[in-house]
Amino acid sequence: MSEAGGDAAPGAPIDSAVRRKLYALDVACAVNEMTIGDHNWRGHPPAQRQTPIRGHGVGNLTEVSRARWHHGIMKRTKRIPICKAESVPVNGIIQVEAHGKSICVLNSGERFFACQATCPHEAFPLCEGVFDGETLTCLEHLWQWSLIDGGDPRGLAETRLEMYPVEVDADTVYLTA
Fold first, then answer.
1. Are 33 and 54 in the same domain?
2. Which domain holds residue 130?
3. Which of 137, 141, 131, 140 lies closest to 154 in space, CA to CA?
4. Quick check: 1 and 67 in contact, CB under 8 A?
5. 73, 98, 120 — which closes off a domain?
């Protein structure tokens, strides 16, 4: 569907009014620190990726992917610094405070994880547990969770662990929302 409300064939040229709107959106997104990543339009058939819009900083968007971008597929990424990467040793755990919550940050050596700070069983501090790079074990009653599987319970554990998305940029670990 084109901006004017009619149907447009994939790859059809986009008129100058639409290009101006896209440029304005692109500028607004840059100002608001919004990002466009390839992940937002992967999977479209090649016919829908033809005839890119060029010259206005929007990238390789087509009528179809432009509509997806315009209608909210693109989202704002909020990053909150929670600790320095070097402060969490390999297979180590530290506890930090973020937005009034206690969070455990764990380093597997290859990636970082963040989860709730207390065991869901009896609120024992998980930062006093053991982490082998994949599985977190609470030492109070030996409940275990697979962090690479999103906090799924292992062994005696009956409840999933609440996980938080994190990313590392330079030497800082960020909580992403």
1. yes
2. 79-176
3. 137
4. yes
5. 73
Enumerate the β-bridge partners of residue 126.
Answer: none
Quote the pTM value: 0.58
Please check whether residues 68 and 108 belong to one and the same domain. no
Residue 97 and residue 161 in one domain: yes
**Which residues have C-beta within 8 Å of that of residue 2, sequence separation ≥ 6?**
8, 12, 14, 18, 63
Residue 153 within a domain: yes
For the record, the structure tokens of 97 come out as: 């405070």
Domain count, the chain: 2
Residue pair 121/109 in contact by the 8 Å Cβ criterion? no
**What three-state secondary structure class fits 122?**
coil
| Structure-token pair, residue 16 | 């100058």
Written as one letter, the residue type at 111 is R
pLDDT per residue over 24-63, tens digit each? 555 444 433 333 333 333 344 444 434 444 444 444 444 4
Residue 108: C-alpha distances to residues 80, 120, 150 (Å) = 21, 22, 14
Do residues 166 and 174 touch, judged by C-beta distance below 8 A?
Answer: yes
